[in-house]
Design brief:
The complex is a heterodimer of chains A (about 550) and B (about 425). By secondary structure, chain A is mainly alpha-helical. Chain A is about 65% helix and about 0% strand. In chain A, helix 3 crosses helix 13 and helix 4 runs parallel beside helix 13. Chain B has about 425 residues and is α+β, with helices and mostly antiparallel strands. Chain B folds into 2 domains: about 30 residues, no CATH class; about 350 residues, Cytochrome-c3 Hydrogenase, chain B, CATH 1.10.645.10. Helices cover about 45% and strands about 10% of the residues of chain B. Chain B is built from 17 helices and 9 strands. In chain B, the strands form 3 sheets. In chain B, strands 6, 7, 8 and 9 form a 4-stranded antiparallel sheet that branches. Classes of the chains: A mainly alpha (about 550), B alpha+beta (about 425). The interface between A and B is large, with 45 and 61 residues.
């Protein structure tokens, strides 16, 4: 017989699997995250700044000469500022969910030797835009025999609480920025948790109203799961609240950022609300921003050991207990807190139905669980809400355990650091003579500056509207920049983004690794392990706190 | 249920006690739900329909409904020539086409009284062991998907399977429907450089298996999901005619390659993986298959060393002397170094007679009972497919299992639906 003799194709069987190729993919992943974080926070920042700072500032400047005008403008300004948190959340959530879907797909591809979506847009960057568009235009099917009212209501009930629940966190992650003061509820974390437990109802609604047995089982599973895992979740957070002595998320976040029992918190707030013209220019009345207290002040590590060396605290307790026992108690508290974080993360994973606890939508068992029958925009809302929930539990973890926006190392990209940097920028600008008027700073951008100065000169020469000119002339560009940035918010934003998306990445990593629990194993694990452990930890933390007397 | 343990007549109790007692019993008794898993369910590996009777999440009764993929493979044999039919039967078990081809070829060759050259036999063993590895790797990936590891692990076995599929494609022109093993030999010698690539794969593959085991074998969730689940005792397995890794995981060291040695398996040193006292559960079946991956790899390694004529390059060098004359009596083209002893054309005839000669496929004993009347078509063909017998034990394994374990158990049996339905 003749032998077919050809060579093996070049493309076949490259046996070496690891190599530089992976790092290229990692770099692409990092690029994707950077671009998308810009896409998320750019619009949010711009809208918050525009509506909350710039327009009110311009309005007030335009009527600054007359007190009556100020009185007229003030209600409008208040209204605008009131809507800022709402606008911020409304813009943030859809874009963020799109980013997280893409991030998850690319991340999973990274862990599983694939490329991930890399066709739509520039290297797959626009993939989720396309997906969202597709879902919007798909037919919205209601199955025969479905309860139409509940079927339609379920996605809304699922999604709405995640928007409302996110609101108090805004004030926490921005250190009580004046714009987000309205979000700062005294009930704080209690409100977030209450809102977080509503979606379960929606899952049961969706499961029941779909007229599908798989959906029904999925809905019931989600109810069982949520009841079991909400308890350890809440217990772990309650313990933290107990440790901090407050429910207010903003206070909890701020208390982890600065040394307690000092005036640093006041300084932080003072810097936060410094008038915009003094963000870049040093003002003798502006206090120095405090340095971040560092990782030892995070609730993750008990927020205690570091205090022991602080004179205020050490002097305050004049009991007979030795400092050694307090140190030991502090260490024990740190261990307990790490365990609490672990419990919180487990409970949160179950609460938002992610692998290894994604039983309500276990694909290999229940087709797709509660959302089997959903299509089009309703499915998109379920999808959106799941990722938003992931984001929210990550944010709660960041605020409650990881010190909110505080830097892990004092002096590293913390408020003090950025205050100095901003002063530096301001002095450079000042030395260049650039802070004298809008024309000059825009003049640094050659074309635009030229155009504007030409328009300005034309207007002046025509003597058309001196009012407009005074209006613009009164605006200091450095001041406008100052309304946009302040050191405290900026450093907070930076660290919150890093921590929250770090958590999200961790969740993706878990999803890329673990199989799924079985429902009875899941419930056993919840009731027989997590709940007793979290109760014991609560008691232990109570005693430890008494010993340390923080 | 609790009601079953109650005596026929309830003891005389005060009326209020009795009423609560009965009320409780009525609450405990829940309606059974009949649910269709499949044929469009994402996890049934094709179009199997399981008619489940559920009590809450507990399976009370399972009825596999097969036949959605019935393609009359046996009937088609009577309407196709042998030459056409041997291209068709790769589709019976699409994950291990080499074995279905081999089962047909072996029976036909026995009927015909053909002696297959050594080189062809070695090539058959190499290809089919490669095919066994690809089949087990695909099982490994999809089994983890069945357990809910949707995204992470499954791609690693698929990555390594790709390498083998590339090699199989290079030699047969197809990635799954090889049509490589023919009645009377094999289709072709591998192309140049092929053996080197295979050797490279064989050398690196054990470390890949180590990686799988590092991720999966001791994973606590994996252990929880597989240990003690779907226990199939030795007796149960044998009474249902279960074969292959499922049987061996239950402690019966039955492997045709050892027990009824065929081809060149007697010349190769390999172990039959049989797990006794490992629980006879899905975990044991996982362990068994992973161990078989290593064994198959070793078989390939030995075959590469022992194959008569050596690699394609060596063979070509030898054939330069005789200018690849292709004569049967040539030392370089005929004898042990030939790869085909029956002329391949649409007029292939098999001598009249009937018989059944099975092979050991990745799923168990695979064979075909052929009745030939000496023409170019079969008089009747009947397949013995391992998936069909293995699937028949599923209802026994699922009694009392929760829904989540259906896929864990079903996946561990490794059923290929075309193999069930033919």
């Amino acid at each position: 017989m003749t032998t077919s003799i050809a060579s093996v194709p070049k493309s076949s069987a490259s046996v070496t699997s690891t190599g530089p190729g992976n790092w290229v993919e990692v770099a692409k992943f990092i690029r994707l995250c950077a671009i998308w974080i810009g896409l998320i926070f750019g619009p949010v920042w711009m809208v918050s700044w525009g509506v909350g700072e710039l327009i009110p500032y311009l309005l007030i400047q335009s009527v600054a000469q007359s007190p009556e005008g100020l009185a007229q403008v003030q209600p409008l300004v208040d209204t605008l500022q009131f809507f800022v948190p709402l606008l911020a959340v409304m813009i943030f959530i859809p874009i963020n969910a799109m980013f997280m879907v893409l991030c998850e797909r690319r991340g999973l591809a990274l862990f599983t030797v694939r490329k991930g979506p890399n066709r739509v847009g520039f290297d797959g960057l626009a993939q989720t835009f396309a997906d969202a568009l597709k879902l919007l235009f798909k037919e919205d099917i209601t199955p025969k025999g479905a309860d139409i009212l509940l079927f339609t209501l379920a996605p809304i009930v699922f999604f709405a609480p995640s928007i409302f629940g996110a609101v108090p966190l805004l004030s926490a992650v921005t250190y009580n920025h004046p714009l987000f003061l309205t979000c700062n509820l005294p009930t704080g974390i209690f409100y977030v948790l209450a809102m977080g437990s509503i979606p379960v109802v929606a899952l049961v609604m969706a499961g029941w109203s779909s007229n599908n047995k798989y959906s029904l089982v999925g809905g019931l599973r989600s109810a069982a799961q949520a009841i079991s895992y909400e308890i350890p979740l809440v217990l772990s957070l309650i313990t933290v609240c107990f440790l901090m002595g407050t429910l207010n998320v903003a206070d909890i976040g701020a208390n982890q950022s600065v040394h307690r029992g000092t005036d640093e918190l006041k300084r932080l707030e003072a810097v936060q609300s410094v008038p915009p013209q003094f963000v870049f220019v040093k003002n003798p009345e502006t206090p120095e921003a405090p340095k971040s207290a560092g990782i030892l002040h995070w609730n993750m590590l008990g927020n205690v050991p570091f205090h022991l060396s602080e004179p205020q605290i050490a002097g305050a307790t004049e009991s007979g207990e030795s400092s050694t026992s307090r140190l030991l108690a502090g260490l024990a508290l740190a261990l307990c807190s790490i365990a609490l974080l672990g419990i919180y993360m487990t409970g949160a994973c179950a609460e938002i139905n992610r692998i290894p606890f994604d039983l309500p939508e276990a694909e290999s068992e229940l087709v797709s669980g509660y959302n089997t029958e959903y299509s089009g925009i309703k499915f998109a809302i379920f999808f959106l809400a799941e990722f938003t929930n992931l984001f929210i539990v990550s944010t709660v973890a960041t605020v409650m355990f990881l010190g909110g926006g505080s830097s892990p190392i004092p002096g590293l990209l913390d408020p003090y650091f950025f205050q100095q940097v901003f002063y530096g920028i301001g002095s450079v600008l000042g030395n260049l003579g650039l802070n004298t008027g809008i024309w000059t700073i825009l003049g640094t951008v050659p074309l635009l500056g030229g155009l504007l100065s030409w328009i300005g000169s034309v207007l002046v020469n025509l003597g058309l509207n001196p009012g407009i000119l005074t209006f613009f002339g009164s605006i200091n560009p450095v001041t406008i920049l100052g309304t946009m940035l302040n050191p405290v918010t900026f450093s907070g934003w930076l660290w919150v983004v890093a921590k929250v998306y770090g958590f999200v990445f961790l969740a993706i990593l878990v999803r890329g690794t673990l199989p799924r629990f079985r429902i009875d194993q899941l419930l056993n694990f919840g009731w027989k392990r997590l709940i007793p452990i979290s109760l014991i930890l609560f008691l232990v933390v109570t005693f430890l706190k008494e010993i340390i007397r923080v | 249920m609790a009601t079953e343990n109650l005596p026929e007549t309830a003891p005389q109790l005060p009326s209020f006690v009795r009423s609560t007692q009965y009320a409780e019993d009525a609450q405990l008794k829940t309606d059974e739900m009949i649910i269709n898993m499949g044929p469009q369910h994402p996890a049934t590996h094709g179009v199997l329909r399981l008619l489940l009777t559920l009590d809450g999440e507990i399976v009370r009764h399972t009825e596999p409904v097969v036949g959605h993929l019935h393609r009359a493979q046996e009937w088609q044999a009577q309407n196709r020539t042998w030459y056409q039919y041997q291209a068709l039967i790769d589709r019976v078990d699409y994950l291990s086409g080499m074995f279905t081809s081999w089962a047909l070829a072996r029976t036909c060759e026995e009927l015909d009284g053909l002696k297959i050259p050594k080189r062809a036999e070695y090539l058959r063993v190499i290809m089919s062991e490669m095919n066994r590895i690809t089949s087990h790797l695909l099982w490994l990936g999809t089994y983890l998907i069945d357990l809910g590891a949707m995204f992470g692990f499954p791609f690693y076995p698929f990555r390594d399977r790709e390498k083998l599929l590339d090699l199989l494609e290079a030699v047969s022109g197809q990635r799954m429907m090889f049509n490589y093993i023919r009645i009377g030999g094999v289709q072709s010698n591998p192309p140049l450089g092929w053996f080197d690539k295979l050797k490279e794969f064989v050398d690196t593959f054990p470390s890949c298996i180590d990686d799988y085991e590092a991720i999966v074998t001791e994973n606590p969730i994996f252990l929880k999901r597989t240990k003690g689940v779907g226990v199939m005792s030795k007796e149960l397995a044998m009474s249902y005619g279960v074969t292959g890794p499922c049987l061996r995981a239950s402690g019966v060291p039955f492997d045709l390659r050892k027990d009824r040695p065929y081809s060149v398996y007697p010349e190769i040193d390999f172990k039959v993986i049989s797990l006794t006292g490992q629980g006879d559960d899905t975990w044991a079946r996982y362990i068994c298959r992973v161990a078989e991956l290593r064994e198959s790899n070793e078989i390939i390694r030995q075959c590469i060393e022992k194959i008569p004529g050596g690699t394609t390059e060596e063979l070509r060098k030898k054939r330069e002397e005789c200018k690849a004359c292709g004569k049967a009596d040539c030392a370089n083209c005929g004898g042990d170094l030939a790869i085909m002893v029956k002329k391949q054309n649409s007029g292939i005839r098999i001598k009249a007679g009937e018989g059944f000669v099975p092979v050991e496929s990745p799923r168990g004993v695979l064979g075909t009972y052929i009745t030939s009347n000496g023409t170019d078509k079969a008089a009747r063909i009947a397949w013995r497919n391992p998936s069909f017998s293995n699937l028949s034990v599923l209802p026994e394994l699922l009694v009392g299992a929760p829904i989540a374990d259906i896929m864990s158990v079903f996946g561990s049996i490794d059923v290929i639906l075309p193999d069930v339905d033919r």
